[in-house]
Amino acid sequence: MGQFWTPISPVSGSLLHAGSQKLTDEKVKEVLRLTVERIPREATHWSIRLMAKAAGITTWQVQQIWQAADLKPHRLKTFKISNDPEFADKVVDVVGLYMNPPDNAVVLSVDEKTQIQALDRTQPMLPLKAGQVERRTHDYKRHGTTNLYAAFNILTGEVIGRTTTRHRAKEFLDFLRQVERSTPKKLALHLIMDNSSTHKTPDVQKWLERHPRITVHFTPTSASWLNAVESWFSQLERRSIHRGVFTSVKELRAEIHRFISAHNAKSAKPFKWTKNAATILDSVQRAKVAISEQN
Hints:
Blueprint: H1 25-37, H2 48-55, H3 59-69, H4 87-99, E1 105-121, E2 140-153, E3 159-164, H5 169-182, E4 188-193, H6 202-209, E5 214-218, H7 229-241, H8 249-267, H9 277-294
Parallel strand pairs: 1-4, 4-5
Antiparallel strand pairs: 1-2, 2-3
Helix pairs in contact: 2-3, 4-9
């Protein structure tokens, strides 16, 4: 059975008299031990009912024990620790731009959201009304895809966007030209981007060399969370695309550009990064230690 590395929080003594029968210290400890050290035969994780059956107590008592110990077996989060040998240097560099942007410069977080699908539902949606949530069919019709390149200005929150039919270095270079034209020539331009192969082709490198006012800052591999534009992509998905109905790629592109315009006009605000580089590096180091202890 696997071991669980997070320390168990102390459980209040008031739980010992909860429910229809008294709980002993031994029973509370047994529930906590089973929760973090064992898995049920019937499933991959504990539910309240399964634990109540295994421990011989009520579901209410299980719920109170887990709540007091801050245990949530039903929840699961994903993670991936970057193996980039320059991870620390890149974190310091990018976080430094967020927390202390240089004077007389524009700092843009750049990335692409690829293969956005133009989806249409097979039947008309049923609208929201009193006592009924909005409803739609689970199946859909595909009408093609588009790609979105976006540059998020961390000082203003405004977005420069470009939709394309294909996702290649050529399209990315066209977007860089658009970004360069859209920013004041007298200001230095700092671009934060990931390590996608389309960002490092010879043509892109040559173009950057011809534009010395532009400095590129790469995020570590497997560290998209460090790219500010990803948060804006999440807003786009939640507020515009996910519940949208598109009968063509043209409609999808029009909606994306409408959302960008509306965002820039009404919702744009400066981006604030709160965790300094030292805090992030300490957190990652603790995660690495925890993983090594599991092996």
